[in-house]
Write a structure and sequence with these properties.
Number of domains: 4
Number of helices: 2
Shape: elongated
Structural class: mainly beta
CATH topology of the largest domain: Immunoglobulin-like
Strand content: over 45%
Oligomer: single chain
Distance between the termini: 102 Å
CATH architecture of the largest domain: Sandwich
Largest sheet: 9 strands, antiparallel
Length: 443
């Protein structure tokens, strides 16, 4: 029993002593760190690597010197320097070059920390302006051209007899002083972006001499090919693709302007009805849609949206249905087969009352002798209509069940389609998403 008593007392001491030790080990702040900023910050421009020299001192060991740059309340740049001893330290901090940021006063803050976690802080106001470059440089694959100030604020232009109306190029700046940097502006995600050198797809509507312009504040540039869809400019994704998201009402009549050979374009009859040379009416149910004009293939891809994303099928049967698979494609299966590439999925036109429509022409948008595609709940892998969720009484199309030559839900043919004939596929979900009915009508 005596040994047990001593063992218990020892165990209690084991748990009590560390709490005392923790109090003893807690670092108490000490010292008197001081900062003296020796640099003068003048003629500072967006895009600069701003140099600084700071003298630091303390009677205890120092740890770090941190410089932070703020535009308003937002921290936009920082740098950390190890300060092992008292003395003078130098470094640089980046001044971001951002689209649209107005000239103004940034805040540069220095924080000195010693090894006891005691700190000193000094804040300096730094006026920052957008550089007035003597010129910019327009860089193409084969040549470079000077872009000179036009007189408009932050705008520059190169006017030449360029070799082509197609002028892929990026833009770069000169280095204006010893703290300046060369900046480049290229094309990324359908917009001019600083820091990339991918070619901007400039296109002039006329040949011979013309001007290429660029604004270093707004990033506005010209010339670009412009398409007006229902009076609004479509956004250029690249030189072949233009896009716009719009709320559309059933029967709404609108125009498409800027496409000179629109009469030669393939028009998707599930979504658009031609009313005149460049006038159309909208066929499906009202909602938000994405329209993507492809200049190379001469057609407008149309997709139902939910918010800003492709719509998907909802539990109540509303939303969208998509086709993924082989032997089908718009504007032609030969040039743009969907295959098993979800990025190319075709959106069926939502016609209302939980019915969805896909019109295909044999030998053009669908193979006449063999098909192998299926219906999906989204423009991606996920929900799909297998043989247990969709049926048909069609004598033209069969639905695969895994034993009839097609996987579950994949469509096949009872016999070859008539080349040139139009076939309308309608998926009816009025009885529920698990009791879809496919009808196929030959026109």
């Amino acid at each position: 029993m005596k040994n047990l008593k001593y063992w218990i007392l020892g165990l209690m001491a084991f748990f009590i002593l560390p709490s005392c030790d923790d109090d003893d080990l807690e670092i108490k702040q000490a010292g008197n760190p001081t900062i003296e900023v020796k640099s003068q910050f003048a003629n500072v421009h967006f895009g600069d690597e701003l140099p600084f020299v700071v003298n630091v001192n303390d009677n205890v060991s120092l740890s770090t010197l941190t410089a932070k740059l703020f535009f308003g309340e937002e921290e936009v740049s920082s740098t950390v320097i190890r300060t092992k001893e008292n003395g003078e330290y130098s470094g640089t901090i980046s001044v971001p070059f951002n689209k649209g940021t107005p000239d103004g006063t940034a805040t540069l803050t220095f924080v000195l920390l010693n090894t006891t976690m005691k700190s000193a802080k000094q804040t300096i106001d730094v006026p920052v302006t957008r550089a007035k470059y003597p010129y910019l440089i327009l860089v193409t694959e084969d040549a470079s051209y000077p872009m000179l100030p036009t007189g408009a604020s932050n705008e520059y232009a190169a006017t030449e007899a360029f070799p082509s109306t197609d002028l892929p190029a990026y833009i770069k700046t000169p280095v204006v002083d010893d703290k300046g940097t060369e900046l480049v502006f290229g094309w990324e995600s359908g917009a001019i972006t600083e820091g990339v050198s991918s070619y901007i797809p400039f296109v002039s509507p006329v040949g011979g001499a013309y001007s290429v312009t660029f604004n270093t504040k707004t990033y506005e540039a010209a010339p670009f090919f412009e398409i007006l869809f229902d009076g609004a400019a479509m956004n250029m994704l690249d030189k072949e693709n233009y896009e716009i998201d719009k709320e559309m009402a059933t029967g709404h009549t609108f125009t498409i302007e800027g496409i000179g050979d629109l009469a030669n374009w393939w028009i998707d009859a599930d979504f658009l009805k031609k009313e005149g040379d460049n006038e159309f009416s909208f066929v499906p149910m009202s909602g938000k849609y994405r329209f993507t004009a492809n200049l190379a293939m001469k057609y407008i891809k149309i997709e139902a949206l939910s918010g800003n994303s492709p719509a998907s099928l909802q539990e109540d049967g509303t939303g969208a249905i998509w086709v993924i698979g082989e032997s089908v494609g718009k504007p032609s299966v030969a040039d743009n087969e969907v295959g098993w590439n979800t990025d190319k999925a075709i959106c069926l036109a939502p016609m209302g009352n939980k019915k969805y429509q896909l019109t295909l022409v044999a030998g053009e948008t669908v193979n006449a002798n063999s098909i192998n595609f299926k219906f999906f709940h989204q423009k991606d892998w996920g929900g799909e209509f297998g043989a247990d969720a969709i049926t048909t009484n069609s004598d033209i199309i069969l639905i695969g069940d895994g034993t009839n030559g097609r996987d579950s839900g994949n469509l096949g043919l009872h016999s070859e389609l008539e080349v040139g004939a139009t076939y309308v596929f309608t998926v009816d979900l009025s009885a529920g998403n698990e009791q879809a009915v496919l009808t196929v009508t030959k026109k």
